[in-house]
Every structure is written in C-alpha cells, then in structure tokens.
Amino acid sequence: MLFHTVSMFFPIIGIRKNSINFMIDDNIFFCRNLLKKMDSGGSVTAHENEPSKRQKYSEGEEDRISKLPDDIIIHILSFLLYKEAICTSVLSRRWVYMWTCVPNIYLGDKFKIQCSYPINKTTFINFVCRMLLHLNASNINLFDLALSEKYDPFIINQLISLVLNKKVKEICLLSMGECNISCYPIFKCQSLEKLVLGLGHSIIQFPSFVSLSSLTVLKLTAIRNPMKITCYSSNQSKELTLKFPFLREYISFDCIWLDVKRVIIDAPLLENVKIVRQWLMSFDVSHAEIVIRASYITNYLYSTYISSETTLLDAAHVADASIYLRDDSEVEMSGQEMKIFVRKLFNINNLKCLRLQV
Q1: What phi and psi values does residue 212 have, to the nearest 5 degrees?
Q2: pTM of model > 0.85
Q3: What pLDDT shows up at residue 307?
Q4: Which of 1, 175, 189, 245 has the most CB atoms within 10 Å of its CB?
C-alpha cells in the first residue's frame, strides 16, 4: 500500500538503491539556479497553497506522503535521479532541503552516460561544489565520482576533502583523463570501508605509512593506460607500509609502483587477491618488491609479464592460486633465474591448489 501510494507521486526509476544519480543534463540550469538561491540565503518558491493538477484531479483523497516521516521520504528520494529529487524542493517548504539528506551520491560529467553535447567543466565543478556544501547528511555512505575530462587535481582533492569530512564509508573515483591526486587525506579517513581508484594517464602519491582500521576492499584499477603509484619525495627510504587489519579483497589492475623500492601490505584477514598487468611499457619499469602478508588466502590470481618487479605472497595457507607469466622481450632470464623468480612468488606452508602457466 505504501509503495502504491508513493508511486502515484514519484515514478520509481531503475537506478541503484539509496542513491541520487547526480548527472549533468537538461535540468542543470534549474538546479544551478536553485543552488544559487540557497547560497545567497534566498527563499525557494514553494507552492504550498496552490493545488497541483493531480491534487485537483484527486480532490478529496488523503495526502498520505506528506504525513510520512522524514527518513521514509529521504529513502523515497534516494530512488530518483537528481533532477527529480531536487525538483521536489518546490513542492512545499518541508521539501526544500529533503534532497540534501540522501547519503549516497553519484556524480559524473558524462563518463557513465551517453551525452551527445559538450559539457562545460566549470559549470559542472561549480555545481558539484555547491551541492556538496549544501549536503545535510551527517554521514555519507558512498561517494562515486566519474570523470571523462581532465580536471585540476587541486579541485578534485578539494571535492574529496569535503566528502571526507562527512565520514564517508565508500569512495569510488574513476577518471578517463589524467587525474594526479594525493591519497594522503583519503588514507587518513578511518571511517573508510571501501576504496576504488580507477585512473588513466595518472600518477597518485601514497604516504609512507597507512593504517585504516575499517577498510575491507581496496581496488586500484587503470583505465586505458597504466596507473602509476609513487611515494612522496620526502620518503627517502622509498618504502611503503600499508596496514589493513580487516581488508578482505585486494585488486591491482595495470598498476605500476614507480620509484618505490618496497611495498608491504599487511592484511591478516585478506581472502581474495588479484594482481593483473596487461600493459607492457619498457620505459616505466618497476623495481619494487611487493610483500603481501596474510593468514589464509582463498583465491590468489597473479597474471603479469616477467619483469624486475617481484610480488611475494607471505601467507600461512592458500586455498587456490593461479599464476600466469608472460614473456617480456626486454627482460632476459635463464631457466635458473626463472625458477628463482617463480619461487619468490610464494612463502607458503600449505598450498592446496596451484595452476602455473608460463
């Protein structure tokens, strides 16, 4: 009965649950003007006394949706695109700021949608900044930012900082263009449970020591071109230590540890590990030693070119492991060196299943 009543007022659309899909579209000007009024402290016109066509048509019926608690109305709004959610602010004064309380936010210029017209980057960034500043949600469950253009890294870092102040649980940053960001603020956010970085043509900086007590998923994925991970210039040892006591899944796809000697991933509860490299770029050679320390790995996939970069899996037990090594013509190895390279991949007392392909 509740769903039927709600559907009479708002068309439920097929998007991810509990989210506002903030995409730039034809209604950007309405939303921008609305945010400008909110910025200046002006009042937003709310037609409280003027009955709508539907109200005239259904005169005499009880307005049940206006009597619902705020939490339920916010949940309803979470099923709408941003243009529908923000447009509800003109229904009545009670609805003016309802859309600002939705905890899941999806932002994108045109990466996840088909857009036939050019999007003004300045307009998009200004809109996103004002929207984030007006959010009233005490906590943000998810912040998803998908970019198709190149933006100033300083601006992107500022947007992320605004979200981090809301104790965000999940961050997903995808960029088709160059996006050289600093991960230092992200790795200071103890509320973070899931981090996905998918960047192309980009160099990101990791602090020398990271300890996130809530992180369960870490995905580092390159888009179109390898993603380069490096340390700060102040880190003379060129060593990185990443401590994730509750990490369950680690994925690295076409990532290059550049100008880094050693990376230690200390994750005792780690279960799934995937390390894949499809790109072969001889001018970006990694000489890093990557050490993954875990207790029990259920699935381990290692697919890469034979290179000077070495990944060491230090685990007490591994249930299933698959290793696919491809030849790199730039790296010459004898049969004995190949055995040593493969042997370095494991330091395991109990390996139940191993598939090796060279």
Answers
A1: -115, 115
A2: no
A3: 66
A4: 175
